[in-house]
User: Fold these one by one.
Assistant:
Number 1:
Amino acid sequence: MLVKRRLRLEIQGTVQGVGFRPFVYQLATALNLFGWVNNSTAGVTIEVEGGRSPLNLFLEKLQAELPPNAKIDALKYQYLELIGYNNFEIHASQTGEKIAIVLPDLATCSECIAEIFDPQNRRYQYPFTNCTHCGPRYSIIETLPYDRSLTSMADFSMCADCQREYEDPGDRRFHAQPNACPICGPKLEFLSHCQGQENTNQSPLEAAIQYIRDGKIVALKGLGGFQLLVDARNNKAVQQLRGRKQRPDKPFAVMYPDLPSIKNDCFLSQLEEAFLTSQASPTVLLQKKKEFNLAENVAPHNPNLGVMLPYTPLHHLLLKSLNFPVIATSGNRSDEPICIDETEALERLKNIADGFLIHNRRILRPVDDSVVRVMNNTPIILRRSRGYAPEPLTLKRTLSKNVLAMGAHLKNTVAIAQKNRLFLSQHIGDLSNQLTLQAMTKTLQKLSQIYDFQPDIIACDLHPDYLSTQYAKNLAQKLNISLISVQHHHAHIYACMAEHQLESPLLGVAWDGTGYGEDGTIWGGEFFWVTKQSCERIAHFKPFPLPGGDRASREPRRSALGLLSQLYDLQVLKKLNLPTIQAFSATELELLLSMLKKDINTPFTSSVGRLFDGVASLLDLRQRESFEGQAAMALEFSIDGLQIPDFYQFQYTKNDSILEIDSRGIFQGIIQDLQNDLPKNFIAAKFHNTLVEIIFDIYLHTLKLGFNSRKNIVLAGGCFQNKYLLEQTIQKLESSGANIYYPQKFPPNDGAIALGQVMVVTGQAI
Ligand SMILES: [Zn+2]
Ligand SMILES: [Zn+2]
């Protein structure tokens, strides 16, 4: 006689919103097993009854034949007494501890694309088509469990046809929570500034297409927020967008209709293509070809272009019809967060956009486009947002306390960590104004709400004046919990260590523009010896003065002046025949020199970012910046493929046991090369090579001291977004057998600081 048993499974991982329950249903019914499956806040629970061999087969296939986006992190099962189920059902969701995973938004799948371009299909040209394999997730989810009633699709009730699909276990839309069609789902609307003059026979989509063809700017309510679209071939239209957005030079990302059209303009490797066509569908930085067909002002003075493919049905319909590339940039005014709501967009974007293509599906949180660049044959996420957030990082050990981290001042993200999981939020922006600060607090609240998260400890930056530090102080006081300040560059190293699950001891190199140091100066050219007990600063660049403080970060000429003041007497300095000196008016120069002389508003910095600025100014590549990193990028780009072995001489001075790298010799060398009329690309490459030599030399130093027997080195911070610097450093270090680690899944820049803050705090306090 066949002995039946009841098998109960508790599954954790990415199992909600990916067609997991339909998959279980189909598997169970195919094997003639009875029971049920449901979504719990912990994941998915299954009970099945049947004979030994079909149950074994069920267990095996459950793990081997997962739906495309599903991932099992943990599976527990037990055999129990028979109940005697007589069918297999999908039960309503349960509540409980919230540890299931919210999926990122997923780019439209090929089956849905085929449907919207099939005139026979009932979803022909329907811009909100989706299924269990694709569509909105994080941007529409209010809280867990993932059920339509807890998403912004709760505003729409399914028509009979959609309901049938939703209930049919054999259908691709079985339990697809955002399921919709032209009858019952969200609808488009087009609004323009000149109401009444529009061609009323046009559909909203046609109206938007007409606007873009005519060189006008259209604000599109997309997946995770508004985007501004404009014809990328039209120089005048692009210039208008730049003027209205107050964005004179910063490159725009471009959405292309398809891969062949991208290949007309840019080089595309297999790896880059794989990322472009992935379900995350990020913007990928590609190298432009010589025969570049777009307007020059799309990405001026830049050999690269940020490129993406359509990732929603709405984008597919637009781009198919336009059949040319469009700029697709965040729908915001400069320095503000991206708009997600039409009322807000109509107000904030009224002086930028000519028309608005909107819809009535609410976006519950802003999720910008992500950015990826392939360096050293590795994809590196430079901005982690749509398609990636809020996928958790699994920690090596289970935390006994919940940690909330506020992140950095620029490129802010926040993080929450509980048990063995850390959730890093999507990109929020620079916390330089109230709107972005509000966006940050909202992101925190909503992320906490999804996971029923209550912090036990708050981590924030060491800088006493940051808005995020003030906010953290108030929150810690209100909740009566402890607040721990974390040094910015420590956080960079620990973030990278967490990503690669690295153990100390190791050498950490943290290079970027700015971060408040433990000694009150501005750091940014740091070498740390990291052990279980401490993160010790063993070397750094010799601090130099920055006349005017913060303003220097937007004016490379000020960094150069500060560096030159270390080399020359101030009276001699102002007569030097250098582009830096000529970039100032006589009055400006007098003022800054007197600030330097009297040490007024002139903080000292060891920042490598500011060294890049200084060199860019001396080479007259950039005297002022209109966006962060512009001068450093100009210096990197000016190398233009040149390969030379030369580097500048550098010395160390010892300050206690800390090595100080004296940059004066380097700058003397640069000035000499300038006086000898050596080409800019030669000087730029020679400067980069010098930085590579310095990292290599200090790495050797740690070997000599005998404490880096594992030969581990971490490279983190915004400077390592520089392809030449990263690749040359890796090449040099690899030649000596070093194990080199650098950020890949989390940004090298300040976008990963919140992650690092959690790791520093958990290392110390838990
Ligand atoms: Zn689909
Ligand atoms: Zn419908």
Number 2:
Amino acid sequence: MSNDTALFLGQFLRAPTTIGALAPSSRRLAAAVCAPVPERGEPTVVELGPGTGSFTSEIQQRLGGRGHHLAVEVNEPMARLLSERFPTVDVAHADAARVGELLSERGLRQADVVVSGLPWAAFPQKVQHELLDAVAAAMGQGAAFTTFSYIHAIPLSSARRFRALLAERFEEVVPGRTVWRNTPPAFVFHARRPRP
Ligand SMILES: C[S@@+](CC[C@H](N)C(=O)[O-])C[C@H]1O[C@@H](n2cnc3c(N)ncnc32)[C@H](O)[C@@H]1O
């Protein structure tokens, strides 16, 4: 077992509904989730729930030193590991609900891309609403939001509720293809144009 998987598993056993997964996402899933990170310009990219950094690494590679990458992680050991592993990433040990405040503290107006690793299906309805409202409010005109869902979670009421909430909050929500090379298999939601 890799060190990252061991950390993930240990933190999952302590707080299953916050971590929401037994292992980090694969490179395939990371590539699908991070696809909206632009290859040009100086974008502000916000990453929510980076965990041990599967998406962080992909975002950093795509940015190649451009823009601002803010990673918001509520779990202290994971936030610490990320800061050590990715010194060029602005890691905030904080709740994703504070994303707007975290951007203003840094003199950044809004995000161009929000990439989420949050375990939406594990959250109660109130938390799903609070977090998605905070995400939508932090997005600039033309910004993109991506997140993922495990395929085994599709029938769960909390996952169906989240999907309905996405459609309520965004004008455009497009599900991607299933990424089979992930444990467990997952698919990505690409959302744009948050409704006011
Ligand atoms: C399913 S893991 C995904 C980790 C990583 N993105 C990946 O795909 O391998 C969910 C992550 O979200 C973090 N998280 C959960 N609730 C959060 C919140 N309210 N604010 C910030 N991070 C949160 C957890 O600590 C965990 O690191």
